[in-house]
Queue: 4 jobs
Job 1
Amino acid sequence: MPMFRTNDLPESDVYTVLANARRREAVRHLTTANGTVTLGELATAIAAEETEESPPPQAAYESVRSSLRQTHLPMLDDLGIVEYDPDTHVIRLRERARDVDTYMEVITSYGITWGELYRTLGVLSLFVVVAALLDVPLIARVDPLLWASLSLFAFAAAIGTQFWTHRWYVLRSLRGFDREAR
C-alpha cells in the first residue's frame, strides 16, 4: 500500500460516497478509530451521532445497522474503501479511503477544521512576532525569539494532537509504506 494518496478512485465515486451522511460518518469513524470495527460498534456510533443520545434509542440503532449492512457497507466495499465481511460483520478501512479523505476536512473537537486551526495559529504567530519586533506595548516585553518559540510549540502541540486523534490511521499507513519498501 502506498503511503501517499493514490487518487485511483474516480471523483464521481468520491461524490457518491460523500452524498450520504451515514457513509461519510462511517468513513470518518473508521479513520479515527483503530481502522477495524464491528457493524454493531459502527451502527452505535453513527446512531448516537444522529440522535445525540448515548446510548442511542434501539429503533435508531436498528435503522442505522440495517442501512449500513444492506446498502452503505456493500457500496463502500465495492469501491475498495472498506473491507466488509458480511459473515463476521467486521469492517476494515482500506488504503483507498485516503482518496475520499482528500475531500473530507476533518473537524477538531472544537468544531473547526485542522486547516482552519493551522491557519489561525500561523496568522496569530506572525502578528505577535511582528508586534514584538515593532515594540508594541506589552507584547514587546517578551523577546520575539520567545514568541516564535511559543508559536512553534503551539504548532507542534496541534500536530501532535492531530496525529494522536488519527493515530491508528497514520500507523496503518506507515505499516503499509514499510511493506512497500521491503
Job 2
Amino acid sequence: MGYSRKFYVAVSFVLAMVFATPHTFAFTYDTGRILGLENSTDVVQVAVKKKMNPKFRRRNVRIETSQKPGTIIIDSNTKYLYYITGKNKAIRYGVGVGRDGFGWGGTVKIGRKAEWPSWTPPKTMIRREAAKGRKIPSYMKGGINNPLGARAMYLYRGGRDTIFRIHGTNQPWTIGHNMSSGCIRMVNKDVEHLYKRAKIGTKVIVIKDGASSAKYYKPKKGFFGA
C-alpha cells in the first residue's frame, strides 16, 4: 500500500470516529467548558459523582420484622427505606438522610401528602444559611427545581408537624449519603412510587444513624435479602 493510500485510510478512520460518536465529543467539550474543567478525565469524574450508586436502586427484598404491612422503616445507618408489603416482605429504596448534627430517630406518621409541593424553609434554616453567605428564598413554588422534588410526605408526631419530610430530589448523587437537614430524600421516580402506596396515617419508624435496627427488623441473607 502506497503512502497516499495509507494517508487516505488514516484520515477516513479519524473522520468516521468523530462523526460516529458526536455525543461523546460534544459531552466532553461542552461539559468541560461549562464547568471550567481542563481535560476529559475531570469530566468523567464529575459525571460519575452525579450518578446514584446502583446498590440503592429500588427492589423487592425479604426481611425479618414484626411490623405490619404498610409500615415504613428508615434505617439511617444503611441509607435504606423499607415499605413493608407483607409478612417479612418489603420494597427497599435508597435514601439520603440528615448530615452530622441533623440526624434523628423515632416513630412518626404521615400527616399530609403533596404532589410537586411548594417549599417554605424554616426561619432557622434561612438564618443558618445566611450566616454562611448563602441566601435562600423564603418561599419557592413547586416544580422541577424545587428542593422537595416531585412528591412530599409530611411527618407528624402527636398531631404536630415535625418539619421533617420524605421527599423527592433531582440530585440522585445525594442518595446513600448524610447530606440533608433532617429530611429523607429519594429520587423522584422512587418517591412517586412510594407516594402511591403510603397513606395518610402511615406509621414511619426512623432509626437514627448509630442506633441498632434489631428492634425493628433484621436483614435476611441471600439474593432476595435486605
Job 3
Amino acid sequence: MDASSQFQDTLPISSDALLAQLQGWGLDYMLHEHVPLRTVEDAKSVEDAMEVPGEAAFRVKNLYLRDKKKRNYLVTLEQDREIDLKALGAQLGVGGLSFGSPDRLMQTLGVRPGAVTPLAMINGAQNNVRFLIDAAVKGADRIYMHPLVNDRTVAMDVADLWGFFDRVGVSAEVLEVS
C-alpha cells in the first residue's frame, strides 16, 4: 500500500477525518492536491503551484526516529536542512538515534513512509512520541505539510499549527540546529 489518499481509510485516522477535525477546531488551512510525494525533491517539483508571493513559507522534511531505549521521536526540519543523527542524539541527551521501521511508524504515528508530518502527532501524542521542530519555524508565516497522506499538502498559519498541538496535547520542542 502506498501513502496516498487512495488508501486513507486504512489509517487509524483518515486524512478526510483529520481535515474535518481541523475545521471543527477552527484551524484554517489551504488544501493542495498533487501527485504522491515521497522525497524533498518530489515536493520541490510541485512547490511553485503552491507559492504565495511575499509569504515566509516553512517547507518541511520529517524524520521518524527511535533511540536505543526504544523511545520515539518525530523531528520536523526545514526541507533543505542537513542533520547529523549522532549530533542530534547528543544534543537531546539520548543515544543510538536511528530511523524507525515502517511498521512502528504506523503503530506510533498512524502514517506510512512518505506521509510523515507534524499532523501525525494527532496519533503520536497518545503514543508518547516526542516532537521536535526546527527553530526556523519561528521566522515563518505558514507551514506546508501532508495531512497524513502524501498526495495532499496543507498550508497552515504557524499559529494554527501551535493551536493544533494544544488541541492534541503535544508539547512541541523547538530545536536549534546548527
Job 4
Amino acid sequence: MLPIWRDPVTAYVAIGANLGDALQTVLQAFDALALLPDSLVTARSRLYRTAPHEARGPDFVNAVARLETRLSAPDLLDALQSLENQAGRQRSYLNAPRTLDLDILMYGDAHMSSPRLTLPHPRWRERAFVLYPLADVSSDCLGAEDFARVSEQAIERLPIL
C-alpha cells in the first residue's frame, strides 16, 4: 500500500547479474523490489541473456521492472544499493562482474545530474540489454532508431517469465 502524502512516480529499474546463479538472482531481485517501502512493482519484463557490454566476465541475465513509488529518486537509489549489497555486490573496479546490478533508468520525467545519480540514465539508449526488456514494460519511450542503434549487440530472450 502506498502512503497518501506524496504522488507516486513511475520509475524503471534495470536489473542485471552475471556472477553466481544470475538467473535466480534476477528473479529474487524482482521479489525484493516488490518489498520496497512505498513502492509497487507494476510490470516485469521478460529475462534476457547478453554478453557483457563494455565489461568482462560471464554472460548477464537482464530485466527491467516498472515501479510506482513514492520514494524520492535518491531514496530509491539508496534502497537499490542496499539490495545490491545484500546480494554480495562488490565494486572492485569499473564494470566489474557483479552478483546484482540495479540501475534507475528513468524516474518520472526527472532530469538531474549529480555525482551520485544522473536521470535519465545517461546510456540507456545505447544498450540492447536495457532496450529490449524496457520495451516489454513500456514501449512509449522507444523508437525504431533506438533498436537500430543496438542492432549489433547480441541478445537472447530466455524462455521463462
